[in-house]
Amino acid sequence: MTEFESLLVALAAIYLVLGVVWVRRDAFVFRAHTGRRFHVAAANALVGGEEGALQWLNPLPPFGLVHVVQPFPASVSAEGVLAWTSAAYPPGERHRQADPRFFAWSDVRRVEAREKDVLVNDVRFVRTGSTRLAAHVARFVHELAKAKPAERARRIDAELERAFDGVAIADAAGRAERGSAALVPPAVGLFLLAFVATPWVDLFGDIHAQWPWLVLALFALQAWGVVALWITAGRLEKRERWKHVLQCALSPLALIRARDGLLRDQLATFAPLAVAKALLERAEFEALLAASVRDARNPALPGCPVADPRALATEADWRARIAAAAARLAPAVAEAALAPPPPLADDCVAWCARCERQYTRADSLCAGCGDRPLVRFSRKA
Ligand SMILES: [Zn+2]
């Protein structure tokens, strides 16, 4: 292998790494390998570490769409806000929430978003998966803190209505996908230049004679891509326009993947279940909804790590509101999700109401759900 060929192999390896998204453990990754047929993966079921997980995307630039959506990162009630949410997609574990503090509304003086963090009274309150979500959470918490006490419950319901609005989600997804389509032609051009034309010339042509044309094509495609990215980012992600452009301006490989970076957070302020209903095939959405409803009704233990009764009430109230909003997406599915499953074998005597695992001893605890007590099957004699 010549030095030039080694360089091409190294570039291909870097390119494959750029085609991986890193997501928080509580997030859901919606990806379509070709066309618009989306599938979902809960990040707590993906390969990764304590803080996050990895998901591969289709490496061929004309294909592949990705949206990353995480549940609202705090529990909110008319009493206050808690930096903790019990939601964890079963049977996976709950992501680590380092500092579950509770603030009564009267104690919230200042709320601000800094990058992906939300700060309350100048101290980090929660970390989110995107700057878009952090800004949204900060705005919402600030509004609730300033609202009259009698107004707060209504504002929380209005926020949930917005987060679960299927029409707005479909509209935002369509707008983002159409709006970023201009990035595809230069990305395909750069991909073909880097991984087809250049190896071809190296193997079958004379790279020493033909390199000026390749370099000229590289500059032309790179300039086209950067201009397209500047315009697209201005439409979809104006706040982070410079960041997107600077990340890609000097790297053709990053520019090929620029669409992923722009698309991934476009639906970040919506509820994952409502996004699932808008993007997924019906059976996949219903399976996700059923498992999420079971988790909301029977969370992994501890359901709330803060002993303050106001924090406990806030966690329970928020969980009930989320469960009710989720159930409205498909009431029959949500109701059926809570019914006992048929026993898998004659010696199965109990099941876990969160993860549906079945047990042969009714006095066992479900370790995967934080030692949750089991529910006994009622059998006809
Ligand atoms: Zn369980």
Please give a structural write-up:
- The chain is of the alpha+beta class and 381 residues long.
- It has three domains: 3-69 and 170-263, no CATH class; 75-165 and 276-334, no CATH class; 340-376, no CATH class.
- The protein has 13 helices and 16 strands.
- The strands form six sheets. The protein has a three-stranded antiparallel sheet. The protein has a three-stranded antiparallel sheet with strand order 6-7-8, with helices on one face.
- Strand 2 and strand 3 form a beta hairpin.
- Helix 4 (166-179) crosses helix 10, helix 10 packs antiparallel against helix 11 (282-297) and helix 11 packs across helix 13.
- The protein is globular, with a radius of gyration of 24 Å.
- The model has no long low-confidence stretch (mean pLDDT 93).
- The protein binds zinc ion.
- The site of zinc ion (ZN) has 8 residues, from loops.
